[in-house]
Design brief:
The chain is built from four helices and seven strands. A seven-stranded antiparallel sheet has the order 2-1-5-6-7-4-3. β1 and β2 form a beta hairpin. The chain is globular and about 40 Å long.
Length: 139
Amino acid sequence: MIEPRFAELLRERSEGILVTMRRDARPQLSNVNYAFSAAEQLIRISTTDDRAKVRNLRRDSRASFHVSSRDFWTYAVAEGIAELSPVARDPDDATVEELIDLYREVQGEHPDWAEYRAAMVHDHRLVVRIRVERAYGLA
């Protein structure tokens, strides 16, 4: 379990920076929306299959995640191993159901869930799950 002060900062925000490793070992950073479950110590991110972050994580599943307070002066960095869900293939598959759950956690209700389901399949969306093993920062 990570310290409560870091978990609280991760829980209260919905925007952060995902850090993955490029083939040449340089970091690649991506601004993302996310949801954090303190009970599961889990960060979840929706993304498309064609992104560099997905290619990087398929090659090297180590990930870091940075989030700062609204005033920028406190922050947490969570580290862990990422896993990728299957790519959404059908509007009623398990990946789309998880994407709906994630959307609700980050954005609330969608005005047209049928349209959302179709878009998740069309966009080849998937979920990045980072099991947080350690956190540090200034919180």
